[in-house]
Specification:
By secondary structure, the chain is of the alpha+beta class. Helices cover about 20% and strands about 40% of the residues. It contains four helices and eleven strands, in the order αααββββββββαβββ. The chain has a ten-stranded antiparallel barrel.
Length: about 200
């Protein structure tokens, strides 16, 4: 058995020495990359684009959306470790837009964080803002779940958010109770809008 380990070590050393430095770095990066890294990169690839969407699921009694209004997600502000994505809601009766919400994703060494930046029309912070949580579990390259510690402790079962990204297909944002969607909106990523929306309130 020692002979087998020795031969494996020599083979690995020979392989590494025989590769250019940049190829060795790419191999090491590939081996160390976690699903949440690929997920964050998939979000980042949409930077600068805005996409249309709509309500997919809403629990009984929830009147935030009617299901007929246009929704827009704008991958507006992007850097290496943070994405700011305004969520614009069409106000059909008023022929105007609610531009109060921005989803903020931050990449950390061991996972992702989501925060909800809520603003008033004058740009000041809403009374209920910057709530969110961190990813739980490994997730996948297309799906990550974020835990709301406060809501989970209050209800006694998992509460949080589920986000999915399939480049060129769809982006999904929603809330979950235990393992089930409770609220969900989907955006069509097949083609970006010709015109991006104005900045969200306070930005």
């Amino acid at each position: 058995m020692k002979t087998v380990y020795f031969l494996f070590f020599i083979s690995l050393l020979f392989f590494s020495c025989g590769q250019p430095d940049n190829q060795v770095h790419q191999i090491e990066t590939h081996l160390s990359t976690q699903p949440f890294e690929h997920f964050f990169d998939a979000l980042s690839q949409q930077c600068g684009n805005a996409y249309p969407g709509g309500l997919t699921l809403e629990p009984p009694g929830d009147e935030m959306l009617t299901g007929t209004e246009l929704l827009i997600v704008h991958f507006r502000e992007c850097d290496e470790n943070r994405l700011k994505m305004p969520f614009h809601i069409e106000l059909e009766d008023e022929q105007d837009w609610d531009r109060s919400r921005t989803w903020i994703f931050t990449r950390h060494e061991d996972g992702l964080e989501i925060r909800h930046d809520h603003r008033k029309p004058d740009g000041s912070e809403d009374e209920f803002t910057m709530y969110g949580g961190f990813t739980v579990g490994e997730g996948t390259t297309i799906r990550q779940e974020f835990k709301s510690v406060e809501r989970t402790e209050e209800m006694g079962y998992f509460r949080g958010w589920r986000i999915e990204i399939k480049p060129g297909v769809r982006y999904t944002y929603g809330t979950i109770r235990d393992t089930t969607w409770s609220w969900r909106v989907d955006f069509d990523l097949t083609e970006p809008l010709d015109e991006v929306p104005p900045p969200p309130w306070g930005h």
